[in-house]
């Protein structure tokens, strides 16, 4: 397995996916984001929901916001809806996905 330059616990499975950062040729650079899986197709696309806080001047408080990010899901990483994952930024892999799932953090 290839070293992807990010300290993650490696998946035990292997795959033939050209877009997989571990077994293919995808290079990672840019942001790392942690979020929850909103939907996932194995070997295809995953939608990650990320929560963040935004400051509202008028009320001097934070409001909870969420956004969805599309990411490529390699076949060697097994996740299901509701799991927490780490995604890393890479070149645009499909029309909407510029991130790839690199690690499953928890259920
Ligand atoms: Zn792989």
UniProtKB/TrEMBL annotation:
What are the protein's GO molecular function terms?
A: rRNA binding; structural constituent of ribosome
**Entry's Gene Ontology BP terms:** translation
Protein keywords: Ribonucleoprotein, Ribosomal protein, RNA-binding, rRNA-binding
The record's section on CDD domains has: Ribosomal_uS17
* InterPro entries to which the protein is assigned, alphabetical: NA-bd_OB-fold, Ribosomal_uS17, Ribosomal_uS17_arc/euk, Ribosomal_uS17_archaeal
Q: What does this protein do?
A: One of the primary rRNA binding proteins, it binds specifically to the 5'-end of 16S ribosomal RNA.
Assembly, per entry? Part of the 30S ribosomal subunit.
Q: Which family does it belong to?
A: Belongs to the universal ribosomal protein uS17 family.
Kindly provide the name given to this protein in its UniProt entry.
Answer: Small ribosomal subunit protein uS17
The encoding gene:
rps17
